[in-house]
Amino acid sequence: MSINLDDFSDAIYHQTGFKDKDILCEQCENEVLSKLERYAANTIFGDHTKLETEQFAGDAIHVPYIRFKNLDYTTIKLFLLSILWKSHISKNPFFSQIDLGPKYAEQLRKMIFENYAGPEDAFEVVLVRPDTNGTRPTKSMVAPRCIKEDSNTAYVFHINEIMYHFNISPHNKLSMFEKGIIKKNGILDIAIIKGEFGAGYFDSFMGKKIKLNPRHS
After folding, report:
1. Taking the model in full, what pTM does it have?
2. Could you tell me which residue, 13 or 125, shows the higher pLDDT?
3. Nearest by Cα to 144 from 211, 70, 88, 60
4. Percent of the chain beyond pLDDT 70?
């Protein structure tokens, strides 16, 4: 299901993601982006219930997380950044808030097609999984948002239970980008926020509550 934040009556179900025709050449799509997508599909996507969870140490709020190890730093990071870059060049109004500007758009394009992921603290990506026990439509694709605060720009996507937070600005970064980013040693953490905390987190992104009947365990 896709949900447009500007029109909540426009909820559309899709079997697959959005496809824009004629914005990329066949070679770019098949030889570069498809390779990134295949690697991500075989590593970080799938049944997370089979993975062990750990907990961020020393946090005032105890947040468990799923940890992936031995990932290819370059491939995973470029896959995540390709989501942002393709949304920027998309002609679909669903991605209207994704406007990187010519400078950052060209930097991301070159990184992707030159297979260069850059240092850990450049174009960080943090993944968060809200677990609302079925009280929210988290199995959906929500129109991404641009968040500007203290001269910092970040973008947030929600795609099938996972929120992707992209940091663009090199200054005044949100504190969440201090943890969870893909590391050069191949570690990537997905934070899990549960219950009312998770529901409130999802609601804050949506800008309103869209409640469902909760799951029964």
Report:
1. 0.80
2. 125
3. 88
4. 71
